[in-house]
Amino acid sequence: MIVVKVGGSEGVDLDAVSRDAAALVRAGGQLVVVHGGSHGTNTLAEQLNHPPRFITSPSGHTSRRTDRRTLEIFQMACGLLNQSLVERLQRLGVNAVGLSGLDGRLWEGTRKEAVRSVEDGRVVIIRDDFTGTVDRVNSALLRTLLDAGLTPVLSPPGISTQGDPINVDADRAAAATAAAIGARTLLLLSNVKGLLRTFPDESSLISRVGRHEVEGVAEYAQGRMKKKVLGAGEALASGVARVIIGDARVNEPIRGALAGAGTVFE
User: What's the total number of domains in the chain?
Assistant: First the structure.
């Protein structure tokens, strides 16, 4: 069992990811595909005259400022990408089914009552943000789909315990999903080769990270890579044997990562 998370960033080759995923499924493998929608949300937000905004927490993590209108745009972008991946997989003979974390309370969690943001050197409290974390995964639903020969394609948003849609990080949601269904391997595919010691110099790739070294290498992560390293650590701590941050720009991104290309955490 493999969970493959593909980023929503510019430069990701969705056709290559889909071909590789289809090849594994046709060979008898089971996998769950997870995706984000960052690039599509940014583009759509600009087109709809609601430009994207980002906030930085006191710990240095950057996330999307998700007011209600941004959440709606996020849902549109993720839904479009979800159906695009399902379409690709169906054309390749894979019976894929697209779901958001809202469906069947697939990704249930807690909506943050307040978000802290550093602005002009001051910490500001934001209370109308629709963000949260995945605390529970409906693994029974996923197993039912997999046992029926279907390939789930999952995207944010998740759902809060009160029933609100929440913007959840797709890398960390993929980590929670891998742990919940007992996946041995989690792949986090993006538009870089892996974790780079000196970003953006791809010759500085860190190829191997021991499970006890995750916190130490986190200092090298820049931007969205911070969440991938965080997700990798959470997956390992929850029983996933191996996490690979790999390159979704290459011809065989999944099989390449499984063969050890990228940054392997184990």
Answer: 1
